[in-house]
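Lab notebook, bench 4. The sequencing result for the construct came back, and we need a structural model before the next group meeting so we can plan mutations. Quick request posted to the team channel:

Model the 3D structure of this chain.
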Amino acid sequence: MRILGVFGVKGSDTFVRGNQVICRTHRGTETGEVLCEATDAALAGLQDPKNGQILRQQSDDDVRELRRLFEQQQHEFETCRQRIGELKLDMKLIDVERLYGGERVVVYYLSEDRVDFRELVKHLAQDFQTRVEMRQIGVRDEAKLLADYGDCGKPVCCNTHLSEMPPVSMRMAKLQKATLDPSKISGRCGRLKCCLRYEYDTYQTLQKDLPPVGSEIITNNGRARVLAQEILAGQVLVQTEDMRRIVIDADEVLTVLKRGSGRNKPPRREGQEGVTRPGRETPSYDRPPEQTGTAVEDVAADPLNATDSDASDDKAPDDNAT
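Done. Here's the predicted structure in token form:
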């Protein structure tokens, strides 16, 4: 597990970004990498940072010792798995981590229920000849430990720059009009991708400049009703009094007579029947009976209709964050 912290130095020692060091943490003696100077601006981005001290820069002997520890961890992983099988414990072994200083061995595992691992710890302490710490983790932590690359072709966020796992909900995907196909918006852990949260605040800020869906507004062309929002474009789809549907810029809205609740009938996108740019005629508004079913399907699929009533979606298993 990676942790971020503020580490002091001895005397006049100086380190620069990227230096591989040996440091003392709250867990023991570990290896680390220098990221930046602990300025006020850098500390402002950390929540409850851990403290410690940098002992020295890694030497060639330290590098050889790390290679030996890596091979030892592979052996200890197999030993731990055999012990779990012998005791028939209902748990999935994820990883075994031995600290550089040998103060402890941390065993990461997945389990739906509580596990009585006291007997396991006794056996492992005898096998490893050090303190054994059992750490139950979630599926997001499993990806953080084991995953390599995401669908975008880059190293997964949780295994690189993310130090915490922020909660991600379906509301974020709907607001950004991302596809709602679970196979495309789920990460290596099977939960919603963390990157769905990166631009969510920007979308929320831009959305505040637009009248909510269902609002009654006054435009240069008269009174109209807001049917949908194009957040990034700063536009809204409106229906005028003569039943035309046009897309207008937000600055064309002169007055909001009545703010909508954000809920409305399913809007139709530009290019569909009855949706035109300003100045274009709307062909027809008499929807044939057989199109009724299609319109209903769009309600569920169109992210423009994300409302407070969708809260149940946000409580889907994907919403759980570790």
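The first strand starts at residue 5 and ends at 8.
Will bring this to the meeting.
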